[in-house]
Amino acid sequence: MTQTSSDLHDLTVAQLATLLRERKVSALETAQYFLSRAAAHAELGTFLDLQPDTTLAQARAADARLAAGNAGPLTGVPLAHKDIFVTRDFATTAGSKMLQGYRSPFDATVVARLAEAGAVTLGKLNCDEFAMGSATENSAYGPVKNPWDTSCIPGGSSGGSAAAVAARLTPAATGTDTGGSIRQPASFCGVTGIKPTYGRASRYGMVAFASSLDQAGPLARSAEDCALMLSAMCGPDPDRDSTSLDMPAEDFTRSLNTDLAGLRIGIPAEFFGEGLAPDVRAAIDAALKVLEQLGARLVPISLPRTELSIPVYYIIAPAEASSNLSRFDGVKFGFRAKQYTDLNDMYLQTRAQGFGDEVKRRIMIGTYVLSHGYYDAYYLQAQKIRRMIADDFQQAFKQCDVIAGPVTPTVAWKLGGHSDPLADYLADIFTLPGSLAGLPGMSLPVGFGAGKMPVGMQLIGNYLSESRLLNVAHRFQQATDWHTAKPQGI
Ligand code: GLN
C-alpha cells in the first residue's frame, strides 16, 4: 500500500479511480474514510442522509469487481447525490418537509448509471426545497455553510453538493441546474461544475421543479473529473424521459487536451456591465488573459435580452413548478397533516404545513400566470421572449465558438444576507439566459474576490458542445492552479 488513507480526500476522481484499479487502496477503506470525514464535518450541514451499512456493502461489491478485473470507469469511487434524485437505499426529501420519511421504490436514472459505472454512494446532500433557491437557505433541514467562510452561503440550490466537494467530503457529487443551480454554487465554493445540454441526462427520478429547464450534472474538483462523471451520467432514456435526447452516450474525456489555438471566445457586453462587482470582474479578466495566452481569441458579442431572462425565467419556472408540485397532496408521498376536517381540508393543511415560504410563493406566482385572463399577458409572452433569447445565442455562435463571462455578479454573500427573495432572483442574471435556451454551461474556479471568497468563470457553449467546454476548462486548469486551492482547515 503506497497510499496513506490520511490524504485520500485530496485525490481527484481520476486519481482515485486509478489507485483503486491498481488495488493500491481498497473501495472499502476509501468508503470508510469518507464516511468518517462526513461525520467529522457535520457542522457544514451538507449531508441529509447517510446509511453506512449500505455504503460499505456497495464498497465491498466494488472491491469484488476490482478483484475480478471487470471494473467500470468509477468502480469504488465514492460519490454523493443531491437530495433531489430519488434513491431506493437512501431517504429522499428534496429539501422539503413535504417528503419527510419518503423512500422511493426505485433509483433515478442518473443514480443508476453512476452505480453501473461502479460508483459507491456515500449519501444524500442538502439542497434548497425542490431546488428553488440560490443559497440553500430554503432547505427545511437547515442551511449549508460555505467551507471557505462558514458565515457565508454556499450558493444554491445544489449548495450541499458544492460545499461537500469543496470541503473534500466527497470527490464529486451530482447536482441539478434549472436556472444556475450547478454553476452558481460551484462558483461560490470554488469547484468545477457542468450543466449539459437540456436532454443529455435523463430527468427520470429527479424530483421535478421546472421540467423544461431541469437538467442533471456533476460537481467535482476539476474539468477532467466532471468529464468522467458526465460520461457516466448521460445517454438516452427513451422509455422513461421522453425529452432525453436520442444521442449515444459520449466519452466526454476524449478531447480534453485539444489545443485552444484559434478558439474564438465570445465576450457578451451585457455580462460585463455596471452590475458586475469589480473583484469578480478582475478575476474573470485575468482568466481571459490566460485563455488568450493558450491561443484563444476574444470576440466582443452581444446577448441583448440578458436582462429579460430574469422576468421570463421567474414566470416560466414557477408556472411549471405550480403544476409539478400539485402531486404533493398528502395522499401519495411523504408528509400528511395530522389534523383536518375533511378531504379538502387535508389537502389544504398538508400543503400549508408541508411547503416552505419560497415554494408557496412560486406556486402562487405560477398559478397566477397560468390563470385564465393572465396566461396571454405573462406565460405566453414569456415563452415568446424565451425563444428570442435562444435566437440571440444562435446569432452569437456565428461569431464565436464558446462564450465566457461571470457566473454571478458577486462572490457568495453572508448567511441571512438577502432578506428579500428578489435579491436572490437578480443574482441569477448570468446563468438564466443559457438555461432558458437549453444550452450547456459550466463554472470553473478562476480566483478569489472580496473576503477571499472563490470566483467562478462561466463558459457557455452551443448545443451538445460539452466536450468543447470541458476541453477549454481542462486546458485552463493545466495552466493554473485555482482549482487545487482548498479552504483553511480542510
Ligand atoms: N436560483 C434559481 C431559482 O431559484 C435557480 C434554481 C435552480 O437552478 N434549481 O429558481
The structure class reads alpha/beta
Can you tell me the CATH class of the domain at 5-233?
Alpha Beta
CATH architecture heading of the domain at 5-233: Alpha-Beta Complex
Shape, principal axes of CA atoms:
globular
Q: Tell how many strands the DSSP assignment holds.
A: 11
Tell me the β content.
Answer: 5-15%
According to CATH, the fold-level topology of the domain at 5-233 is: Amidase signature (AS) enzymes
Helical segment count: 15
Would you tell me the overall average pLDDT? Answer: 97
Bound ligands: glutamine
Largest beta sheet: strand ordering: 4-6-5-10-11-9-7-8
Helix amount: 25-40%
Radius of gyration: 21 Å
Q: Separation of termini?
A: 24 Å
CATH homologous superfamily (4th level) name of the domain at 5-233: Amidase signature (AS) domain
Written as H for each helix and E for each strand, in order along the chain, the element string is HHEHEHEHEHEEHEHEHHHHEHHEEH
Unreliable segments (pLDDT under 50, ≥5 consecutive)? none
